[in-house]
Each structure stands twice: as structure tokens, then as C-alpha cells.
Amino acid sequence: MYYDHFVIPFLVGTIFMFAVIVWKWGRWLWMLPGGDKRAIGRGIFSMATVRAVGEVVSECLLHRKIFRVNPLLGYMHMSLAFGWFLLIATGWIEAACVLGGGTPLHAHVFFRYFDPAVHTGWNPFSFVMDLLLLMVLSGVALAWFKRMRSRAMGMKRTTKHVLIDRVALSSLWCIFPLRLLSESLTAAAKHNGGFLTGSLGDLFAAWLSPDALAVCTETAWWLYSCALGIFFVAMPFSRYMHIFTEVPLIFLRRYRIRSEEQPKSFDNFQIQACSRCGICIDSCQLQRDLGIRNVQSVYFLRDRRYGRLTDEVADNCLMCGLCEARCPVGIDLNTLRLNSRQQRKDAPVLTRYDYLQGIDRSVGTGKVGYFAGCMTLLTPATLQSMQRIFEAAGEEVWWADRDGGTCCGRPLKLSGEVQAARKIMESNKALFAKHGITTLVTSCPICLKVFREDYDLQGIEVLHHTEYILRLVRAGRLAIDSSGEAFTYHDPCELGRGSGIYEPPRELIRMAGTLAEPEHNRREALCCGSSLANTVIDDGQQLRIGAAMTAELEQTGAQTIVTACPLCKKAIVRNVSVRVADISQVVAEHLRPVVGSRAAAAETGAAASRSARPA
Amino acid sequence: MPQFGFSISQPRAVNLDTNDTVPAERILQEVPELQCCIACGSCTATCTAGNLTSFNFRRMHTLVRRGEYREVYEQLEKCMLCGKCRLVCPRGINTRAVALKIKKTLCDY
Amino acid sequence: MENKDKRVIVVGGGVAGMQTALLLRERGAEPIIVEREERLGGKLAGWHKLFPTFTPAGEVLEPLRGRVAEAGIEVRTGRTVEEVTPTGVVLNGGERLDGAATVVCSGFEVFNARIKEEYGYGIYDNVFTTVDIERMMNEGRVRTAQGNEPRRIAFLHCVGSRDEKVGAHHCSKVCCITGVKQAIEMKELFPTAEVYNFYMDIRMFGPGYEELYRKAQLDYRINFIRGRISEASQTIDGWVQIKAEDTLIGRPLRMSVDMLVLIVGMKGGASNGAFARSGGLTVAPNGFMQPRDAFFGNVASERDGIFYAGAVTAPKNIGECLNEGAAAAERVAAYLKL
What we know:
By secondary structure, chain A is mostly helical.
């Protein structure tokens, strides 16, 4: 009953697909570390599950985040995903109503063919099904259109696909036109079509002889079933694996499972949830400014998934986080990139960095520690300004590294040498503990990020100097006078997207003058090109990225370009003729002079914090 | 030339007739701008690790370019990859890549 | 021939511009010098003595100024040129000066040492540039910021030259000898002071230069250390602590000095871009103007009627600028069929 040979390709494909998916997911879940498994146990009966369901509906079906990138692109994804979902769901209901429960799977999918009724008059199901089919077809048409004219849909570049993706894509594009054809041909004989398939069916009935119609109908259903079968077989190995994988990813993420500095099986959920939509390509400055087109996150994930990842691709990324901020699936692209590097480069350290034992070049004493960072030692204006700020606020400061210190460890971590980085971190941690500081201020966003995320500094609050200065101002320990000067501000990647610090520097700048924003700012800010995360691009390439970014800053017409990272500052200086200043310089220059007790405090502060000239 | 027993002292001259420059050439292929180093010493002067140890980055990559690899790997293990050297290099050499490539090449070799 | 057909606009009143104008006048042309500053002289007006002979700058500058005045050459000072064409220039404010030919002698800019922040110029008290030293010598008082006679002086070569990090791929050519000259002058002023020159390469290209270098080493006991300073910091008593590698030993070197002098390089003029746009000329990748060719077209631009003289096309010393002025005048005269 309800059987015809043409259902075989569909059935085989479906069974194969689900078997592969169950095997993949099962294996990944099984291989999760114990902690993650317990997290799932804790989360599954909590509100997290409810929220995850909501997110699945809004992201997997409606694709709300893509709508935000471009409405037309969003509609394309939504019509395909949500449209197809409704088509299946409504088809299921209709088949269950007409054929009753317990009918085999293919009877639902090919319902029009097995539909026993010869309809007369208006059938609401046919109408709804045709409407949904039209919606999906419009999505397919847009996908075609996007292939040819991606710009119109807000994407300058689309993903270059591998063979299996092309197979899956081609069969996917055939599925719905073939469904339209099959259902219309069936409707020609059975009159069970709606406004779309029914009308087309009437046309076919008028054109074709009953014999020809029968042959065409059989052929069309075969083709439709084959298209479905091919798609389902290709699907688990192609980018379309994302359709199902995004669902468990959302749940696991809600249960607070994250990718870490070493690869683990959860990464697979993230990697295979990538739909290769290619939204990450346009924003990438390596693509935009340098024309490098094989390293973007979509290609990195693809290469990693198929085991073809090379150092060239893994290392060629600024890790500026711009693509991560735009990724509609919310994949932790930087973390995955990092743990790929870890896997390729990390090695046991044994006696490495033993020389750090007991190294202490610090000077001064105080509850507040200041860690300039390696790069800040090359921007002495920042150091000098910080000293003036500390003096003005009467703060006693322990200077961790002004006479040369140790690296914070993040550059090594970014290159993948996690164990080596850990050794440096432990050495610094011991130093901080030894000097009993309670606040650690740093001028380098790279150091800031690693102090906050990897150091686990108990009892020590870590602040970037922008936050620290703003705190001093709010506490009334510093006052800033406005000069009315026109400033613009560049968000360093590690400070903005990396650490979420956008407003403190802006607040300080507004106290000193006026602030004009460049075209890309805050979450959308561009990278200066000097990122330590990239060890592949050469100096000329860094310069080109920096020049494109700096041009936007110059266009604001500001007299002074302000930033809050020594590396960014160095990169901007190379490209402009206007003044470039660290936020601390701006503050130090606009400090309201205070008469009286401050001078005495400044005197002692200076004496304590400066080093004596060696004999 | 036959060498009897073992000799503790290394030959004094850098012998470009016998030194193996294949690894060096592999590195130079990947970071070609290393070829234009003018040995100004900025990298070593600013070096965070060189400030604390005897590590001399300029000497190390020069030795490699001459086909002298003894101790280079061990010395490069001292590098913290902080990138100050890259920031000061007047020739725009990607010094961090040089450090990584030397280690990788000497390890593979 | 009408007067207007003999009028030549000379952009810039430094040594090259004055020399060009003087020799054009000798050949019967009507040069007009447009000078951005209030007085003629260009960068030379800021120098004290000239290498390698220690000739006072005034001995070159004053005769030139005097002869320009004597010859009654029209001079527009305090005006900048915004556009150049073969038939005249546009001054700031939009005024147009018509002529039959234009000679661009706008020279170079001194590298802004603040860009090399790691050396602390404008941040630490005792970091100076060679331009500051010339000025102090002209003022007759060379002192540290604390008003003391310097006891330990370090010169750093190649600041803003041969440095891709500041976009300067070129060698400024004259700074090596300037550094040697100033080191000697300092030693003469302060015989007990220690003087160190930190260099990457010493390029002594001119006659008498190498000899002066040798003299500096032998007679003045100036220490030449092969290594580029990577950064400087300030000590409590206002001294400057510098870090370099002594590359001949292969070890890092630290020292404190009470005067760090940055030997700043030459970069292309800031107005070169505007000249190129308005005149259909080319700015070379090094930022200087691109002459027609390196042999027979040194003082010609790619465009008939626009000529170059002096450091506008490359770093040059005073003598070379004077020669180029003469050569340009010759070419302009031929062009105007004078």
C-alpha cells in the first residue's frame, strides 16, 4: 500500500542521512569531557532548554540574525528553512488527516501521488501547501540570483564551494522545481492541486495526451525522489549538515558548553554548524585590503572539517573578531582558530623559560600595580602620561615592568604554544602575588585580555588604563578640562570586541573635547593590521590594512586621533600626518591643575617610581 | 675528512664550502624579507628575552643563514614571541615568523 | 621678445632657488622667487657650519642673498605655491603668477622625530635633533635641558632614513657626514665630553668626508658603535638611558647620556603631492619628485616647461644644490631660447 518504486532513492537517502547524523552526534556527545556531560545533565531540565527552543525557532528557522545583515538575504534563508519546515509539517498533517495514522514515511512526502481522493472544489490544504511551495521556490530563485548578483543581497563575495557542496547544492536547487512539476502533473489527472500546482496541472492536461501525462508524471516523481535522495546522501558531508547541527549547538551552548584552548569534540558541533553562508568573507580585512581569499573563517572551518587545514590558513588571521561578531550562527571562530593552532604547535615545555625564575625588575611600592606591556615600552608618551596621572591622583604605584619586564604570555598563546604561555603566566602571577597588589592596571589591551581570561588573579582587579582613569575621574581624584579639541577614536580589537570596553575611552575624550566617530566603530571597528595573532602577512600588507583603517579616522577631520593600544598607535602613526595620541596622553594634557597638597604627593610619587641612573 | 676520536672544540671558521644551507633556504623562501636584514641590532636591543638572558635574535638568524644550526633551536626556545622586535625592525622583517619558521625547520630537519 | 616671455617662476628661495634665479638673470631672463618663509635662505638659514669644511653657513648664504638683492630679482616672501604649471603658478589665496617656465626648487622636509616615539623626542628633556643642535650652535649656547654642559653625548644615525616603519626606504645621504661634523663640533665645544655615534652603516660619499670620519675617530676620539638604538628612557636625574645592540660584539648595550641627538633624515616636501596633481608630475615612491631621467634629465620634469633644482628630487648637499641651480638655469635658457 502507498508504494511505488520511485520512493526507493528517497528512502535510501533518508535512512542513510539519519544514520550518519545519529552516528556523528552520538560520537561527539560521547566524546565530550565529563564536565560538559554533567553540564548537559544540569541544564536539560532548566530554563536553558526553553530558551534554546526559542533560539532554535528564531535562528534555525527564521534566521533573524541574517535579516539584520540584509533583509533580502534573510528572507532567502528564511524561505528555504522555515518554508521547507512548514511544508513538511503541513504535509504531515494533511497526510495524517487523509490517510490516517501509521502510514509509512514516503506516503507523507509523496502524498499528492498517493492521495486517494479526487478533489472537487477548494481544498484548503492544497492552497496552503502551494503557498508554502511558492515561498520556498522564491527562496530558490533568490539563491540563484545571489549566485549571479551577490552584491544586490548585501554580499560582495560569496563562498567558493567544494565538490560535495556543489552536488548537494545542485540537488537542493532541483528538489523544489521538481516537486512543483511532479505535483502539477499529478494534479492534471487527480485535480488535487492548489492555485499553483492545480493551474499548472490544468495546462498540462490540456497539452498532453493521457498516456504522455502518465509517463511524464512517473518520470517527474522519480526525478524528485532522486533529487531528494542525492541531497540526503550528500547532506551530512556537505555544508548542509548545518541545518540539523545548529540545533544541538544551540542547546549545548545554552548549557554553557564552550570551545576551549585545546580542541575537544564540542568543536565539531560548531564546525559543522557553519552553513558557509560567507558573511565572514566581506568583513575580513585580509580579503578587503589584501585580496587574500582562502583563509577566512568559512574556509578555515571547511579545511579543518575535512582535515585539510594548513598552517598557512590557520595562522593567517588577525583574530580581530569582526567575523565572529557578524557570524549569524555565533560560532566561536577565534577560539576554534586558537585551538587549531594549539594542536599544530603546542609542545611540552620542560625547562623552557626557567630563566624567569626569580626575575623581578619592578620598582616602587603600592596597592596599585602598573603593567605597561612590552609594546608600551616603545610608546613612552603613554608611560609618561600614566606617571603624571598617577601623581595627580596621589596614587602609590608598583611599576611591574617599566625597566623591562616579562611578556604577558598572550602572543605565545595566540601562536598556539599554550603550555609555554602558561609558564610565563605563572611567573608573572607569582610576581603580582609577591608584591601584594590589589589592582592591576595595564596600558596594553593584549595584556588586559590575557590577565582577565587566563591568569585567574584572585583578589586582584584587572583594569585597562582607560577604565582606571575614568574611575579616578568619577571618584573626584582627577579632573579633566575641555580644550574643545576635535578628537576621533580608534577601537583596538582586543579592547573593544575582545574585552567589551567601548565607552570608558569615549567618556574621557568627551571630557577633553569633541569626539567624531569613524565610519566603522565599536563592534564594527576595523583592525590596525598589526595584530600579534597573525604571523603570516608581511610588513607591506600590515601597512595596507593600517592605511585603509586610518583613512577612515582621517576622514573625520579630527585634529588628534586617539587610541588606547600601543600597537594600534604605532600602526596609525605610520599612515597619517595629524597627531596620534594614546588616551592617557589626552587625559594628562587636559588635567585640571590643582594647587596645594598635590605637588608634595607628586614629588614623593615620582621619587618612588622612577629608577635611579645606574652608575 | 676522517675525524678520529672526538673533538670537543668546534672548527673556528664558518665553512661555507661544507655548511648545509638547505634549511636556511627553506626559511628564506617563506620569509624572503629576512634576506634584507642590515644587522642593525634593533631586534636584539629591544628583545624582552634578550633583556633577561643571553638570547641574541640577530645572531641566531644570521647563524642560520650561514648554515650554522648548533644551539640555535635551544636559544630560540628563550624567545617569548612578544613582537617588540617586529615593531622596531627598520626593514619591516616579520621577525616573529622568522623565529617560528626557524624552530619549525630545525625541528623537522 | 616680450618681457612676459622671459619670466620664470622659481618656486622656493633656498640655495637651489637663489642660484637658479641668479643664473637665469645673468642670461637675461626675468626670474621671480616665491618663498614660503619671510626671508630667503631655505634650510641653510638654520644651519651653523657646513660639512666637511666647517665653512660658516653664512659664508654661502649671505653672498647669495646679497646677489639676489643686487640683481633686483623680484622676490615674493611669505607666500606658498599651491599649483604649478609650465605657464605659471597659483599662490595661496588664489593669486596666479604667469611665466614662460617654472623651476621647482622647493627642497625637502626634515623628518619629524616625534614619529619615532621610542626615542622620546618631545617626551624626554634631553633628546634633541641635529636641527636643534645647529640652532643651539647658532645661538651660541649648547646645553642640556638642565642648563649644564653635556658630559656624555650620543648621536643616533638614520632617524627617519632607511626605516620602513616610518615609510622612509631611502638613505638621506647627508646625515652620516652631518653626524660626524656635529660630533666633532661637540667635542670641540666640550673637550672632556664623551661622544658616541650609533650607526648602521657609515656612508661617506663626498670628497673629504671619509677623511673627516677618520679624523673624528683618531683626533677627536669619537666612539663609533655599530648598532641602532631601539629605544630610550629617562632616568630620575633627567639623563637618557639608551638601549642598543653592539652588533660587533653581539651583546646588548645600555648606556646613559645627558644628551641624545637624533640625526634626522630628509623626506620629500609636503607640497609635492599638490605639485604633481596640478602640474602632471610624478612623486617618486620615496616621496621626492621624479626627474625626467637620472642622467641627462636630472633637472627636468616629465613635462616641458617645468624644471627642478636641488633637494626637491632627492637628498642633496649644498654644493650639489648649487650645481643643480646652474644646470637648471641652463636648461631653462635653452627652453626659452634665450
